Structure of non-specific serine/threonine protein kinase:
Amino acid sequence: MMTPLLNTDWPFADYARLDPSSEEECKNSCLNDCSCSVVIFGGSSCWKKKLPLSNGRQDDTLGKTAWLKVTNNSFTPPGKVPPVSVKYKSNAAITGLLGGSVCVNFILLTAIIALGFFFMRSRKQFKVCEHQKRFNFEYGTAHSFTYSMLESATNGFREEIGSGSFGVVYKGTITVGGNVTPVAVKKLDRTFMTVDKEFTAEVNAIGLTHHKNLVRFIGYCKEADKRLLVYEYMSNGTVADYLFGELRPSWQSRINIAQGIARGLLYLHEECTTQIIHCDIKPQNILVDDYYNARISDFGLAKLLHLNQSQTNTAIRGTKGYVAPEWFKNKPVSVKVDVYSFGVMLLEIVCCRKNVCMEFSTSDERAILTDWAFDCFQSGMLDALVNGDMEALNDVAQLERFVKVALWCIQEDPNLRLTMKQVTQMLEGLAEVPSPPSSTSFSVTVQV
Protein backbone atom coordinates (compact mmCIF):
# COMPACT_ATOMS: atom_id res chain seq x y z
CA MET A 1 0.00 0.00 0.00
CA MET A 2 1.02 3.65 -0.40
CA THR A 3 1.14 6.22 2.41
CA PRO A 4 1.20 9.97 1.60
CA LEU A 5 3.52 12.67 2.96
CA LEU A 6 2.55 16.18 1.90
CA ASN A 7 5.14 18.68 0.64
CA THR A 8 7.99 16.18 0.99
CA ASP A 9 10.76 15.30 -1.47
CA TRP A 10 14.10 13.53 -1.75
CA PRO A 11 15.51 15.54 -4.69
CA PHE A 12 18.47 13.36 -5.66
CA ALA A 13 17.23 9.77 -5.45
CA ASP A 14 14.95 9.47 -8.50
CA TYR A 15 15.84 6.95 -11.18
CA ALA A 16 12.82 7.34 -13.48
CA ARG A 17 10.22 9.93 -14.43
CA LEU A 18 6.71 9.53 -15.83
CA ASP A 19 5.39 12.59 -17.62
CA PRO A 20 2.48 13.06 -18.00
CA SER A 21 1.00 10.92 -15.25
CA SER A 22 -2.03 10.94 -12.97
CA GLU A 23 -1.57 10.45 -9.24
CA GLU A 24 -3.17 7.00 -9.40
CA GLU A 25 -0.91 5.94 -12.30
CA CYS A 26 2.05 7.24 -10.34
CA LYS A 27 1.22 5.15 -7.27
CA ASN A 28 0.46 2.01 -9.29
CA SER A 29 3.73 2.36 -11.17
CA CYS A 30 5.61 2.23 -7.87
CA LEU A 31 3.54 -0.65 -6.50
CA ASN A 32 4.34 -2.72 -9.59
CA ASP A 33 8.08 -1.89 -9.53
CA CYS A 34 10.24 -3.85 -7.09
CA SER A 35 12.97 -1.18 -7.24
CA CYS A 36 10.60 1.64 -6.29
CA SER A 37 10.30 2.72 -2.65
CA VAL A 38 8.84 6.21 -3.01
CA VAL A 39 7.14 8.26 -5.72
CA ILE A 40 6.82 12.03 -5.76
CA PHE A 41 3.76 13.40 -7.55
CA GLY A 42 3.39 17.04 -8.52
CA GLY A 43 1.42 18.71 -11.30
CA SER A 44 1.30 16.01 -13.94
CA SER A 45 4.75 14.54 -13.26
CA CYS A 46 5.79 11.46 -11.31
CA TRP A 47 9.31 10.78 -10.01
CA LYS A 48 10.20 7.23 -8.95
CA LYS A 49 12.84 6.84 -6.25
CA LYS A 50 14.71 3.93 -4.73
CA LEU A 51 16.77 3.35 -1.63
CA PRO A 52 19.00 4.71 -0.24
CA LEU A 53 17.19 8.04 0.17
CA SER A 54 19.16 11.14 1.19
CA ASN A 55 18.80 14.92 1.48
CA GLY A 56 15.07 14.72 2.18
CA ARG A 57 13.23 17.96 2.83
CA GLN A 58 9.77 19.27 3.69
CA ASP A 59 8.60 22.64 2.44
CA ASP A 60 5.06 24.01 2.28
CA THR A 61 5.88 25.62 -1.08
CA LEU A 62 6.86 22.34 -2.80
CA GLY A 63 3.37 21.51 -4.01
CA LYS A 64 4.31 17.82 -4.25
CA THR A 65 3.14 14.71 -2.44
CA ALA A 66 5.45 11.84 -1.54
CA TRP A 67 3.84 8.39 -1.58
CA LEU A 68 5.77 5.80 0.44
CA LYS A 69 5.43 2.11 -0.29
CA VAL A 70 4.70 0.27 2.96
CA THR A 71 3.84 -3.32 3.81
CA ASN A 72 0.13 -4.10 3.94
CA ASN A 73 -1.13 -4.55 7.49
CA SER A 74 -3.66 -7.36 7.69
CA PHE A 75 -4.60 -6.43 11.26
CA THR A 76 -8.11 -4.93 11.38
CA PRO A 77 -8.79 -2.70 14.35
CA PRO A 78 -11.51 -4.34 16.46
CA GLY A 79 -14.83 -2.72 17.10
CA LYS A 80 -15.84 -1.44 20.46
CA VAL A 81 -15.39 -4.02 23.16
CA PRO A 82 -18.59 -4.43 25.14
CA PRO A 83 -18.21 -3.43 28.74
CA VAL A 84 -17.72 -6.24 31.19
CA SER A 85 -19.27 -5.87 34.60
CA VAL A 86 -17.12 -7.29 37.34
CA LYS A 87 -17.85 -6.69 40.96
CA TYR A 88 -14.88 -6.23 43.19
CA LYS A 89 -15.04 -6.48 46.90
CA SER A 90 -13.48 -3.09 47.40
CA ASN A 91 -12.12 -0.03 45.65
CA ALA A 92 -8.77 -0.76 47.29
CA ALA A 93 -8.43 -3.95 45.26
CA ILE A 94 -9.14 -2.08 42.04
CA THR A 95 -6.62 0.60 42.93
CA GLY A 96 -4.00 -1.99 43.77
CA LEU A 97 -4.46 -3.86 40.50
CA LEU A 98 -4.35 -0.69 38.42
CA GLY A 99 -1.31 0.60 40.24
CA GLY A 100 0.52 -2.67 39.82
CA SER A 101 -0.36 -2.81 36.13
CA VAL A 102 0.90 0.71 35.53
CA CYS A 103 4.13 -0.05 37.37
CA VAL A 104 4.77 -3.25 35.39
CA ASN A 105 3.99 -1.52 32.09
CA PHE A 106 6.32 1.34 32.96
CA ILE A 107 9.17 -1.07 33.73
CA LEU A 108 8.56 -2.98 30.49
CA LEU A 109 8.41 0.22 28.44
CA THR A 110 11.65 1.49 29.99
CA ALA A 111 13.36 -1.82 29.23
CA ILE A 112 12.16 -1.77 25.61
CA ILE A 113 13.39 1.81 25.08
CA ALA A 114 16.77 0.95 26.62
CA LEU A 115 17.12 -2.15 24.45
CA GLY A 116 16.11 -0.18 21.35
CA PHE A 117 18.64 2.54 22.09
CA PHE A 118 21.36 -0.06 22.67
CA PHE A 119 20.46 -1.87 19.44
CA MET A 120 20.47 1.31 17.32
CA ARG A 121 23.77 2.47 18.79
CA SER A 122 25.37 -0.93 18.24
CA ARG A 123 24.05 -1.06 14.67
CA LYS A 124 25.41 2.42 13.92
CA GLN A 125 28.82 1.50 15.32
CA PHE A 126 28.74 -1.73 13.31
CA LYS A 127 28.03 0.19 10.08
CA VAL A 128 30.84 2.66 10.72
CA CYS A 129 33.18 -0.18 11.54
CA GLU A 130 32.18 -2.09 8.39
CA HIS A 131 32.72 1.03 6.25
CA GLN A 132 36.18 1.47 7.72
CA LYS A 133 36.98 -2.18 7.07
CA ARG A 134 35.75 -2.00 3.49
CA PHE A 135 38.04 0.93 2.71
CA ASN A 136 41.05 -0.13 4.71
CA PHE A 137 43.35 2.12 2.69
CA GLU A 138 44.63 5.38 4.12
CA TYR A 139 43.97 8.62 2.28
CA GLY A 140 47.09 10.42 1.11
CA THR A 141 48.83 7.18 0.10
CA ALA A 142 49.10 5.68 -3.38
CA HIS A 143 49.40 1.96 -2.71
CA SER A 144 51.70 -0.10 -4.91
CA PHE A 145 50.36 -3.41 -6.24
CA THR A 146 52.09 -6.16 -8.17
CA TYR A 147 50.72 -7.16 -11.55
CA SER A 148 49.89 -10.66 -10.27
CA MET A 149 47.86 -9.15 -7.41
CA LEU A 150 45.72 -7.13 -9.81
CA GLU A 151 45.45 -10.01 -12.25
CA SER A 152 44.10 -12.15 -9.42
CA ALA A 153 41.87 -9.33 -8.15
CA THR A 154 40.18 -9.02 -11.56
CA ASN A 155 39.99 -12.79 -12.13
CA GLY A 156 42.36 -12.53 -15.07
CA PHE A 157 40.93 -9.18 -16.26
CA ARG A 158 37.70 -10.94 -17.09
CA GLU A 159 34.94 -8.37 -16.44
CA GLU A 160 35.41 -5.29 -18.63
CA ILE A 161 33.34 -2.33 -17.44
CA GLY A 162 34.67 0.46 -19.65
CA SER A 163 37.24 1.57 -22.19
CA GLY A 164 38.64 4.78 -23.57
CA SER A 165 41.55 6.38 -25.35
CA PHE A 166 43.90 5.59 -22.44
CA GLY A 167 43.02 1.97 -21.75
CA VAL A 168 40.47 -0.58 -20.58
CA VAL A 169 38.82 -0.72 -17.14
CA TYR A 170 38.03 -3.98 -15.33
CA LYS A 171 36.01 -4.70 -12.22
CA GLY A 172 37.79 -6.48 -9.41
CA THR A 173 37.97 -7.04 -5.67
CA ILE A 174 40.87 -6.55 -3.29
CA THR A 175 40.95 -8.33 0.06
CA VAL A 176 42.66 -6.61 2.98
CA GLY A 177 42.58 -8.18 6.42
CA GLY A 178 39.77 -10.50 5.36
CA ASN A 179 37.61 -7.63 4.10
CA VAL A 180 36.65 -7.38 0.43
CA THR A 181 36.72 -4.01 -1.37
CA PRO A 182 35.33 -3.67 -4.94
CA VAL A 183 37.68 -1.75 -7.22
CA ALA A 184 38.01 -0.58 -10.82
CA VAL A 185 41.37 -1.42 -12.38
CA LYS A 186 42.46 0.62 -15.41
CA LYS A 187 44.97 -1.14 -17.64
CA LEU A 188 46.81 1.60 -19.53
CA ASP A 189 47.64 1.23 -23.21
CA ARG A 190 51.32 0.67 -23.93
CA THR A 191 51.22 3.51 -26.45
CA PHE A 192 50.49 5.90 -23.59
CA MET A 193 53.28 4.86 -21.24
CA THR A 194 55.12 7.63 -19.42
CA VAL A 195 58.71 7.38 -18.28
CA ASP A 196 59.17 5.84 -14.86
CA LYS A 197 59.96 9.09 -13.08
CA GLU A 198 56.93 10.91 -14.53
CA PHE A 199 54.57 8.03 -13.83
CA THR A 200 55.67 7.70 -10.21
CA ALA A 201 55.40 11.45 -9.67
CA GLU A 202 51.88 11.52 -11.12
CA VAL A 203 50.48 8.66 -9.07
CA ASN A 204 52.03 9.93 -5.84
CA ALA A 205 50.44 13.35 -6.41
CA ILE A 206 47.09 11.77 -7.28
CA GLY A 207 47.28 9.75 -4.07
CA LEU A 208 47.11 13.02 -2.14
CA THR A 209 43.73 13.98 -3.62
CA HIS A 210 40.65 13.69 -1.43
CA HIS A 211 37.30 15.22 -2.39
CA LYS A 212 33.73 13.92 -2.30
CA ASN A 213 33.29 14.66 -6.02
CA LEU A 214 36.35 12.67 -7.10
CA VAL A 215 36.50 8.91 -7.52
CA ARG A 216 38.93 7.77 -4.87
CA PHE A 217 42.35 6.77 -6.21
CA ILE A 218 43.64 3.71 -4.34
CA GLY A 219 46.90 2.74 -6.00
CA TYR A 220 48.87 1.63 -9.03
CA CYS A 221 51.08 -1.03 -10.58
CA LYS A 222 54.39 -0.26 -12.27
CA GLU A 223 56.00 -3.50 -13.29
CA ALA A 224 58.21 -3.88 -16.39
CA ASP A 225 56.18 -2.31 -19.21
CA LYS A 226 52.86 -2.70 -17.38
CA ARG A 227 51.06 0.34 -15.96
CA LEU A 228 47.75 0.01 -14.10
CA LEU A 229 45.70 2.34 -11.92
CA VAL A 230 43.29 1.25 -9.18
CA TYR A 231 40.20 3.29 -8.26
CA GLU A 232 37.19 2.91 -5.99
CA TYR A 233 34.39 1.10 -7.83
CA MET A 234 31.17 3.01 -8.57
CA SER A 235 28.11 0.81 -9.10
CA ASN A 236 25.72 3.36 -10.69
CA GLY A 237 27.58 3.84 -13.96
CA THR A 238 28.44 7.11 -15.67
CA VAL A 239 26.71 10.44 -16.12
CA ALA A 240 26.44 9.50 -19.82
CA ASP A 241 24.32 6.48 -18.85
CA TYR A 242 22.29 8.70 -16.53
CA LEU A 243 21.64 11.50 -19.06
CA PHE A 244 21.23 9.68 -22.33
CA GLY A 245 19.08 6.73 -21.27
CA GLU A 246 15.42 6.25 -22.07
CA LEU A 247 14.21 8.11 -18.97
CA ARG A 248 15.04 11.78 -18.42
CA PRO A 249 16.56 12.47 -14.96
CA SER A 250 14.78 15.08 -12.87
CA TRP A 251 15.84 18.72 -13.16
CA GLN A 252 16.87 18.83 -9.50
CA SER A 253 19.11 15.79 -9.85
CA ARG A 254 20.76 17.34 -12.93
CA ILE A 255 21.42 20.51 -10.94
CA ASN A 256 23.07 18.40 -8.24
CA ILE A 257 25.21 16.55 -10.79
CA ALA A 258 26.40 19.77 -12.48
CA GLN A 259 27.26 21.50 -9.21
CA GLY A 260 29.14 18.43 -7.97
CA ILE A 261 31.28 18.24 -11.11
CA ALA A 262 32.06 21.96 -10.82
CA ARG A 263 33.18 21.55 -7.21
CA GLY A 264 35.37 18.59 -8.14
CA LEU A 265 37.08 20.52 -10.94
CA LEU A 266 37.58 23.53 -8.67
CA TYR A 267 39.39 21.22 -6.25
CA LEU A 268 41.66 19.85 -9.00
CA HIS A 269 42.47 23.30 -10.38
CA GLU A 270 42.90 25.39 -7.24
CA GLU A 271 42.81 23.36 -4.05
CA CYS A 272 45.22 20.48 -4.68
CA THR A 273 48.80 20.61 -3.44
CA THR A 274 49.77 20.13 -7.09
CA GLN A 275 47.44 21.59 -9.72
CA ILE A 276 45.80 19.01 -11.97
CA ILE A 277 44.40 19.51 -15.46
CA HIS A 278 42.02 16.69 -16.29
CA CYS A 279 42.20 17.10 -20.09
CA ASP A 280 39.30 14.75 -20.86
CA ILE A 281 36.16 16.01 -19.11
CA LYS A 282 33.08 14.33 -20.60
CA PRO A 283 30.00 12.48 -19.25
CA GLN A 284 31.68 9.10 -19.75
CA ASN A 285 34.42 10.13 -17.28
CA ILE A 286 32.02 11.25 -14.56
CA LEU A 287 30.69 8.42 -12.42
CA VAL A 288 27.63 8.33 -10.15
CA ASP A 289 27.92 7.03 -6.59
CA ASP A 290 25.35 5.24 -4.43
CA TYR A 291 23.76 8.57 -3.46
CA TYR A 292 23.67 9.90 -7.05
CA ASN A 293 26.52 12.35 -6.49
CA ALA A 294 28.88 13.09 -9.38
CA ARG A 295 32.41 11.68 -9.00
CA ILE A 296 35.13 12.69 -11.50
CA SER A 297 37.26 9.77 -12.70
CA ASP A 298 40.32 9.32 -14.92
CA PHE A 299 42.06 12.36 -13.45
CA GLY A 300 45.03 10.10 -12.71
CA LEU A 301 46.11 10.51 -16.33
CA ALA A 302 46.05 14.30 -16.40
CA LYS A 303 49.17 16.39 -16.84
CA LEU A 304 50.30 17.75 -13.50
CA LEU A 305 51.43 21.35 -13.10
CA HIS A 306 53.84 22.80 -10.56
CA LEU A 307 52.65 25.78 -8.55
CA ASN A 308 54.88 28.20 -10.46
CA GLN A 309 53.42 27.16 -13.81
CA SER A 310 50.15 28.24 -15.37
CA GLN A 311 50.39 26.58 -18.77
CA THR A 312 51.92 23.47 -20.27
CA ASN A 313 52.36 22.01 -23.73
CA THR A 314 51.45 18.38 -24.22
CA ALA A 315 50.15 16.03 -26.90
CA ILE A 316 46.47 16.43 -27.77
CA ARG A 317 44.26 14.70 -25.25
CA GLY A 318 40.52 14.72 -24.91
CA THR A 319 37.48 13.56 -26.85
CA LYS A 320 35.98 14.99 -30.02
CA GLY A 321 33.17 17.40 -29.24
CA TYR A 322 34.63 18.36 -25.87
CA VAL A 323 38.12 19.50 -26.92
CA ALA A 324 38.94 23.21 -26.57
CA PRO A 325 40.00 25.09 -29.76
CA GLU A 326 43.53 25.78 -28.49
CA TRP A 327 44.37 22.08 -28.73
CA PHE A 328 44.29 22.41 -32.52
CA LYS A 329 46.12 25.75 -32.73
CA ASN A 330 49.40 24.64 -31.17
CA LYS A 331 48.81 27.06 -28.31
CA PRO A 332 49.73 26.56 -24.65
CA VAL A 333 47.19 24.53 -22.70
CA SER A 334 45.87 25.65 -19.30
CA VAL A 335 43.06 24.75 -16.91
CA LYS A 336 40.76 26.59 -19.31
CA VAL A 337 40.63 23.45 -21.52
CA ASP A 338 38.74 21.75 -18.68
CA VAL A 339 36.46 24.79 -18.38
CA TYR A 340 35.60 24.50 -22.09
CA SER A 341 34.83 20.78 -21.78
CA PHE A 342 32.73 21.43 -18.69
CA GLY A 343 30.72 24.05 -20.60
CA VAL A 344 29.89 21.56 -23.33
CA MET A 345 28.93 18.95 -20.76
CA LEU A 346 26.84 21.47 -18.77
CA LEU A 347 24.69 22.05 -21.86
CA GLU A 348 24.31 18.27 -22.22
CA ILE A 349 23.22 18.04 -18.58
CA VAL A 350 20.68 20.84 -19.07
CA CYS A 351 19.28 19.41 -22.30
CA CYS A 352 19.73 15.65 -21.70
CA ARG A 353 21.20 15.19 -25.17
CA LYS A 354 24.65 14.79 -26.72
CA ASN A 355 26.58 17.75 -28.09
CA VAL A 356 26.77 16.21 -31.56
CA CYS A 357 23.46 14.56 -32.40
CA MET A 358 23.53 12.23 -35.39
CA GLU A 359 19.72 12.16 -35.55
CA PHE A 360 19.77 15.57 -37.24
CA SER A 361 21.18 16.35 -40.67
CA THR A 362 24.33 18.47 -40.80
CA SER A 363 22.25 21.38 -42.11
CA ASP A 364 19.90 21.25 -39.11
CA GLU A 365 20.68 23.99 -36.58
CA ARG A 366 20.08 21.49 -33.76
CA ALA A 367 22.85 19.13 -34.89
CA ILE A 368 25.55 20.87 -32.81
CA LEU A 369 24.26 21.65 -29.32
CA THR A 370 26.82 24.37 -28.51
CA ASP A 371 25.79 26.39 -31.59
CA TRP A 372 22.07 25.79 -31.18
CA ALA A 373 22.15 26.69 -27.46
CA PHE A 374 23.51 30.15 -28.21
CA ASP A 375 20.83 30.72 -30.87
CA CYS A 376 18.11 29.60 -28.44
CA PHE A 377 19.46 31.86 -25.71
CA GLN A 378 19.59 34.90 -27.99
CA SER A 379 16.07 34.30 -29.29
CA GLY A 380 14.59 33.53 -25.84
CA MET A 381 13.72 29.93 -26.71
CA LEU A 382 15.01 28.09 -23.63
CA ASP A 383 11.91 25.87 -23.70
CA ALA A 384 13.17 24.36 -26.96
CA LEU A 385 16.50 23.50 -25.33
CA VAL A 386 14.88 21.40 -22.61
CA ASN A 387 12.25 19.94 -24.93
CA GLY A 388 9.34 21.17 -22.85
CA ASP A 389 10.68 19.84 -19.52
CA MET A 390 8.16 21.49 -17.20
CA GLU A 391 10.24 20.98 -14.07
CA ALA A 392 13.10 22.94 -15.66
CA LEU A 393 10.78 25.58 -17.12
CA ASN A 394 9.19 26.10 -13.71
CA ASP A 395 12.69 26.97 -12.52
CA VAL A 396 13.45 29.23 -15.49
CA ALA A 397 15.78 31.55 -13.55
CA GLN A 398 18.05 28.62 -12.68
CA LEU A 399 17.74 27.25 -16.21
CA GLU A 400 18.84 30.56 -17.73
CA ARG A 401 21.67 30.81 -15.21
CA PHE A 402 23.02 27.39 -16.19
CA VAL A 403 22.81 28.12 -19.93
CA LYS A 404 24.60 31.46 -19.53
CA VAL A 405 27.38 29.85 -17.47
CA ALA A 406 27.82 27.16 -20.13
CA LEU A 407 28.06 29.76 -22.91
CA TRP A 408 30.75 31.65 -20.97
CA CYS A 409 32.70 28.40 -20.55
CA ILE A 410 32.78 27.61 -24.29
CA GLN A 411 34.17 30.95 -25.46
CA GLU A 412 36.81 30.46 -28.16
CA ASP A 413 39.25 32.76 -26.39
CA PRO A 414 40.49 31.01 -23.20
CA ASN A 415 40.91 34.38 -21.49
CA LEU A 416 37.16 35.01 -21.78
CA ARG A 417 36.22 31.73 -20.15
CA LEU A 418 35.31 31.59 -16.50
CA THR A 419 37.48 29.97 -13.87
CA MET A 420 36.01 26.97 -12.07
CA LYS A 421 35.72 29.11 -8.95
CA GLN A 422 33.54 31.57 -10.86
CA VAL A 423 31.56 28.69 -12.37
CA THR A 424 30.90 27.17 -8.94
CA GLN A 425 29.81 30.50 -7.46
CA MET A 426 27.47 31.21 -10.37
CA LEU A 427 25.89 27.75 -10.46
CA GLU A 428 25.19 27.96 -6.74
CA GLY A 429 23.66 31.42 -7.06
CA LEU A 430 26.42 33.19 -5.14
CA ALA A 431 27.36 35.45 -8.06
CA GLU A 432 25.45 37.09 -10.89
CA VAL A 433 25.94 35.81 -14.44
CA PRO A 434 26.31 38.53 -17.11
CA SER A 435 24.97 37.83 -20.58
CA PRO A 436 27.67 35.99 -22.53
CA PRO A 437 29.17 37.34 -25.75
CA SER A 438 29.07 35.43 -29.02
CA SER A 439 31.64 32.67 -29.38
CA THR A 440 33.78 34.84 -31.68
CA SER A 441 33.87 37.93 -29.43
CA PHE A 442 37.16 38.87 -27.76
CA SER A 443 36.21 42.11 -26.03
CA VAL A 444 34.18 41.10 -22.99
CA THR A 445 35.55 39.91 -19.65
CA VAL A 446 33.90 38.77 -16.44
CA GLN A 447 34.96 39.75 -12.94
CA VAL A 448 33.72 37.86 -9.87
About this structure: The longest strand covers residues 167-176. The longest helix spans residues 91-134.
